[in-house]
Design a protein that fits this description.
Elements (H helix, E strand, L loop, with lengths): L1 H16 L4 H12 L5 H7 L6 H35 L19 H15 L3 E2 L5 E3 H4 L19 E3 L3 E3 L4 H10 L4 E10 L11 E11 L4 H16 L5 E5 L5 E10 L16 E10 L1 H6 L8 E8 L1 H8 L4 H4 L8
Parallel strand pairs: 1-5
Antiparallel strand pairs: 2-4, 3-4, 5-6, 6-10, 7-8, 8-9, 9-10
Bound molecules: zinc ion.
Length: 334
């Protein structure tokens, strides 16, 4: 037994001394001291079967070899670390590579979430040009020339009066309704432009999210059901909704959707400007004239549309107090 221990000690010492990396040392440590298959561990497990005499002589020796080898491994480990540090190719003052701090913009995160919701319900994701004609941006949406919503003050024209930066994502709606046959089920996230002076709450561009459905037999109940499911997805199952009549030229009837203020539960606070409700989106049944001007027979088909601004929603969600921060370089959230 003693000679076996001597052989083990000799071999282990040789192996430890010839190690060139900390990884190799770890392997050797496990080879001899692993709880399940370590050579010395296994040897010590035999101790109970020895006679008292054998235990007296072998026990202390085995323990000594064990602690000597462990000390040798540690010594060798320190030596390897020191050798590494002295390598002229290693510059300890060299700065670490910058950590990857990138993440998806909060607006895009919300768009992605909304897209995944609507994809689940069978909607396609649509897109369209940001430079748009007055035809698609106004006329086909039941906004004839001279309509207050086409006010030149609000619109950024590229080539007045026909070419402009789209003022709403409804322009994509009129394009898709013109280009495709029903049934149509599409959502369109997009950037829109208005002739606004930049401030903490307004910018000359912002984001909208629009959805529309056209098919035979679509009613306002479909719209309400869709909006209810969507708001529960956005704000949680206990959200309280309020639908109320509101005028939008491209729909009839038009319907505004409010949620009960989640901060004051309707009692009134600064967030809801003491109204108890917060307006989230505008919606309605697509106007007879809109369908007709887009080449869809309004006697056969009907449809609904809804649209919302994304910037304020994102600002609330991420507690961003100034819209300009959304588009600056220093947007950081935790
Ligand atoms: Zn409130």
């Amino acid at each position: 037994m003693d000679s076996e221990l001597e052989v083990i000690e000799k071999n282990a010492t040789l192996e430890i001394n010839s190690c060139v990396s900390a990884g190799e040392l770890d392997t050797i440590y496990l080879k001899y001291f692993s709880k399940t298959h370590g050579i010395i561990t296994n040897l010590l497990k035999k101790l109970p079967s020895f006679t008292i005499e054998e235990k007296k002589t072998f026990g202390p020796k085995a323990n000594q070899v064990q602690s000597d080898l462990k000390a040798l491994i540690e010594k060798k480990r320190n030596l390897l670390i020191n050798e590494q540090l002295q390598d002229p190719m290693i510059d300890m003052t060299y700065p670490l590579p910058a950590e990857n701090a990138g993440y998806m913009h909060p607006i895009n995160q919300v768009i992605e979430q909304m897209n995944s919701f609507f994809r689940y319900y069978g909607f396609s994701i649509g897109e369209g040009p940001e430079i748009e004609t007055a035809e698609y941006n106004f006329r086909k949406l039941n906004l004839p020339e001279g309509h207050p919503a086409t006010d030149l003050q609000d619109t950024l024209f590229i080539n007045e009066p026909d070419l402009l930066l789209r003022t709403h994502t409804s322009s994509i709606e009129s394009r898709i309704l013109t280009d495709y046959e029903p049934p149509i089920r599409v959502v369109v996230p997009g950037k829109v432009y208005r002739n606004e002076t930049a401030s903490a709450t307004n910018l000359a561009f912002f984001h909208q999210y629009q959805g529309f459905v056209v098919d035979k037999g679509i009613t306002i109940q479909h719209l309400k059901g869709t909006l209810e499911a969507f708001h529960k997805f956005l704000f949680g199952n206990d959200v309280i909704l309020r639908f109320r009549y509101k005028y939008y030229p491209e729909v009839s009837p038009g319907m505004g959707t409010d949620i009960q203020c989640t901060f004051c539960k309707g009692a009134g606070c600064t967030v809801c400007k003491f109204r108890g409700w917060i307006e989230v989106l505008g919606s309605g049944m697509i106007h007879y004239n809109t369908l007709k001007m887009c080449g869809i027979d309004p006697e056969v088909y009907s449809g609904f549309a809804f649209g919302m601004g994304l910037d304020r929603l994102v600002m609330n969600k991420f507690a961003i107090d100034d819209i300009r921060k959304l588009y600056g370089g220093g947007l950081i959230y935790i």
